[in-house]
Amino acid sequence: MGVVAHADDSSKIPNGGTIVTVPGVGLAPPAAMNGFNPFLTSSAYDAEAEALMYQPLFWVNRDFQINFKLSIAKKIVVGPQHQSFTVYLHRHWKWSDGITVTTADIAYTYHMLMKLGPLYPGWDSGGFPDDIKSFKVLGPFSFRVVTKQAVNPRWFELSGLSYFNPYPEHSWKYYSIKQMNDNMTNVKFYSVVDGPFRLQSFHSGRYASMVPNQAFSGPDKPHISRLVFRFLNSNASVFFALKSGAIQLGNLPAPLYSARNQLTNDHLTVVGPIWGFNYLGFNFSNPKIAFVKNLLVRQAMMHAVNQDLMIDVMGYGYGARAYGLVPGNPPVYLSPEAKSLLSQGAYDPKLADKLLDQAGWHRGPDGIREKNGHKMAFTMYMPPSMVRGPTLLATMLAKVGIQVRLREMPFNEVYAQMVDPHSKKWQAVYLAWSQTGFPTGGSIFKCGGVQNSYHYCNPKMDALMAKIRVSPGLNALYKFQNYFTEQQPVIVLPNMKIFVMAAKNIHGISRAITPAGGFNPQYLWVSHAKS
């Protein structure tokens, strides 16, 4: 019998071993990584790798509080009027080439974001840059951000100041934006890091490998000797890769949950639901589906969806209802109204029929609703191998007279169509969105927002979002989330828990996968490992 260390005693955890996994473990179906520059990427899969290479200014824990022990920042001093935020840095953080992480790296980030403007995927959300009056370096280990008006401190710390993550100024300052684009996957470009891992190799369409940053100055140094992300393109391929041993860690597709006993060398960990929301989203600029602009139609769709059935069929009972963009696990930001709705559910097909009739859409001879010669029908893009959920959704909507045509398409192609401002042909998507530590609409639903690929616009919603930024506490967030649930700019779908399978000699899964969908493989370890 070999000695197995207790997971909480890091001094007894063995080091070494390679873990092969896939992008999106604990978060979503697999997809390829396409770049590693945090200034130029917006995919959650790319961000997963970036988060391992670059330590954040603020490390947000499971209760959505800042853990300053794991943060670049040592503390924040908020001015009495909630308009100034002075951030002090720890002095022990170093880049992998030995140079100390300082406010020069913070300033580089700020000026790069200002140079990129709307080209930066996170532009115009979290209060950056519209709410910022000034940014000033006070010294090598302190800087101050002054806002144009009093802001909600908790929101600004978790959403606004989080943009000021340091990146290696001394290594990147010589590159233009075009050169950065040209080096999105160049391993040498990312040789200087301050996170627990560094990029070892990248093979387009195949895999990316990472190894520990031997100069990592944080307290949670990795135990494994190599981490490989294989780029698989379907849930089924993950299952068979787990079965064959080609990967040792991956999400077990929910449709194959009953087949989990075939994975005789693996153990199951149930995580989540993740910090985000699943949804049916629409292209409001497409005239062929103009009916989605009618609030009654969207409310009817919400009431037509049997979320409990989706949870039972898709997640084998492992899931939670959801009707808004504020996640319910943990329920730290839920309004009283949201908690009540979640406990009661909203499934009411008779009400859905009534609302559609009220909107002037009546059933035709084939049962599909019609108005002025147009059918209430749309085409929904769905990621590969995710047929069960979209099929269930289409069946539920068909019962109230709405026809849904399903079309499978790789995530990258769907995303490319959505973000292309000239592409207005797509109609609907079946996707998910991850949230920040303080969950607001950001620029996803803001009129003209950078991330608003749906072309949705509601001035009242914008006004409610704006109040979240300036009102201390949670009341403004409560009012916004209640209005969002009423309006349903996207039809929010239930949150499923995720089944994660790992080889029996891999430990630390629950700690490595966070409620926010983050992946921290520095907490994984392998017993009986061979490097």
CATH superfamily of the largest domain: Dipeptide-binding Protein, Domain 3
Poorly predicted parts: 1-9
Oligomer: single chain
Number of helix segments?
A: 15
Tell me the radius of gyration.
23 Å
- How does the helix and strand content classify structurally? alpha+beta
- Please tell me the total number of domains: 3
In which order are the strands of the major sheet placed?
Answer: 19-18-20-13-21
Total strands: the figure is: 25
Going by CATH, the architecture of the largest domain would be: Roll
CATH class of the largest domain: Alpha Beta
Please indicate the percent range of residues in DSSP E strands (runs of 2 or more): 15-25%
Task: Using brief descriptors, characterize the structure shown.
alpha+beta, Dipeptide-binding Protein, domain 1, 5-stranded mixed β-sheet, 26% helix, globular, disordered N terminus
Structure description:
The protein is of the alpha+beta class. The protein has 3 domains: 10-54 and 173-272 and 499-526, D-Maltodextrin-Binding Protein, domain 2; 59-166, Dipeptide-binding Protein, domain 1 (Alpha-Beta Complex), CATH 3.90.76; 276-496, Roll (Dipeptide-binding Protein, domain 3), CATH 3.10.105.10. The protein is built from 15 helices and 25 strands. It has helices spanning 44-53, 103-116, 153-160, 169-172, 177-182, 235-244, 295-304, 307-315, 336-344, 349-358, 388-398, 411-419, 459-470, 475-487, 509-512, and strands at 18-21, 59-60, 66-67, 73-78, 84-89, 132-139, 142-147, 197-203, 207-212, 226-230, 249-252, 266-271, 276-282, 319-320, 362-363, 369-371, 374-375, 377-382, 403-408, 428-434, 491-493, 495-496, 498-503, 506-507, 525-526. A 5-stranded mixed beta sheet has the order 19-18-20-13-21. A 4-stranded mixed beta sheet has the order 1-10-9-8, covered by helices on one side. Strands 4-5-7-6 form a 4-stranded antiparallel beta sheet, with helices on one face. It is globular, with a radius of gyration of 23 Å. The two termini are 20 Å apart. It comes from Acidithiobacillus marinus. GO terms for molecular function: peptide transmembrane transporter activity. Residues 72-439 form the Solute-binding protein family domain.
